[in-house]
Amino acid sequence: MSFRTLGLDANILKAVQEAGYTEPTPIQAAAIPQIIAGHDLIGIAQTGTGKTAAFVLPILAKLAGMKREANQRGIRALVVAPTRELVVQIEENVRAYSKHLPLKVATVFGGVGEHPQIQALRSGVDMVIATPGRLLDLMDRRHGDFSGINFLVLDEADRMLDMGFLPSIRQIVKALPRKRQTLLFSATLSREIEGLTHEFQHAPKTVQIGRRSNPAETVTQLVYEVPKHLKPALLVHLLRDPSMDMVLVFSRMKHSADRIARNLENKGIKTATLHSNRSQNQRLRALKDFKSGAVRVLVATDIAARGIDVDGISHVVNYDFPMHAEDYVHRIGRTGRAHAVGDAISFVTSEDHGTLRSLERFIGRGIVRKKAEGFDYNAAAPAVQAGDRERPPMQGNARPSQPARHSGGSHPRGNGSGRQGASASRRGGGGNNRWRR
């Protein structure tokens, strides 16, 4: 099948060809005709399968075919995504595919000045891509005309629920016209997501690619059992493998991510960090350097699990093992994207064995255990410097960070604005029951 069979505008086909794509992925082939036909749609697919283009391309095609009156300045399409990194990634796709169309796009997210965003909404754009917090804030202050919305996309809907955005999303949707086409995309189809479809959509078609909640089949999954104090040394040891040329490392906490990055830099490994304490400019710079190869390793907290869309990641490393199966799925989905292959390695300490068993039950398969050749597993714990001691948990409303996983092998709290909510209540609880449905 080629893109030409999907009913796309000639100018869009030209842009797709210039972007280097020759045939649609399964989610694109299944979703695009349904969207062009005017149906509401539920799209379930793992990360890295091309789902962004699955909704961007048909919306652009329909916008290109819709006549806008000379005095019509209202927004016609709205895409809501959980993190600012994901918003930026979607914008890059929209601009690439609409380069030959007279369409305007704007982004709305927190962490940066709001004045340019307000000006863009007032001047009139065809599509807005936004995080829920900043968007709702601007809508409450009546910036932008959303009365003519034809298309609404809720991307990474499961992640938005996890982050506590449901109240904001309900308020946003309530302010939009009832007659619209609503597209909901998610990597998982939980009862909560199914509830959203009944609330926001009308007779939606469902497109599901692959098994629910299972990692991409192109990812080689490995577990390295290691004493906790040897994790820094094991990471450096694995990174001596030149095949680990573009590595995403997940850490449990923000200060831990900084400490991991310092250790790698001290060993001569170019590294960047990505977490919510970094400014927007710092985060965008980290992603740019990682994409360009200026840095070999990006150390991130869970903020990056849904916000990074980078081709060519060779390895995902769970430096700290994730507490939730869904986090594992989304993290390792950063490699092995589309039809590419990749490795995902998880460091597992004695404290993680029960959680590992729960994960294996969840994904329906065991994960191969592996030993790093030439690594001394019996080494004593190094002396800990005062600046590198673990900090006590934050008090008050601070959200505990999630563990991260380690990748190696043989072969993206506030992401939008201050309005963002805390984790969903289902992330509470203890022990292995967190992964049971």
Automatic annotation (TrEMBL):
Domain Helicase C-terminal positions: 218-383
GO molecular function, one term: nucleic acid binding
Keyword presence, Hydrolase: yes
Catalysed reaction, written as an equation: ATP + H2O = ADP + phosphate + H(+)
Residues of the Helicase ATP-binding domain: 32-207
Residues covered by the DEAD-box RNA helicase Q domain: 1-29
A GO cellular component annotation in the UniProt record: cytosol
CDD domains in the record: DEADc, SF2_C_DEAD
Any GO BP: ribosome assembly
Short sequence motif Q motif: positions: 1-29
Species for this entry: Pedosphaera parvula (strain Ellin514)
Region Disordered: start-end pairs: 383-437
Identification of the protein by name: DEAD-box ATP-dependent RNA helicase RhpA
Composition-biased stretches (Gly residues): 427-437
EC number, as in UniProt: 3.6.4.13
Primary enzyme class: hydrolase
UniProt similarity note: Belongs to the DEAD box helicase family.
Top-rank taxon, per record: Bacteria
Organism taxonomic ancestry: Bacteria, Pseudomonadati, Verrucomicrobiota, Pedosphaerae, Pedosphaerales
Keywords tagged on the record: ATP-binding, Cytoplasm, Helicase, Hydrolase, Nucleotide-binding
SUPFAM superfamilies hit by this protein: P-loop containing nucleoside triphosphate hydrolases
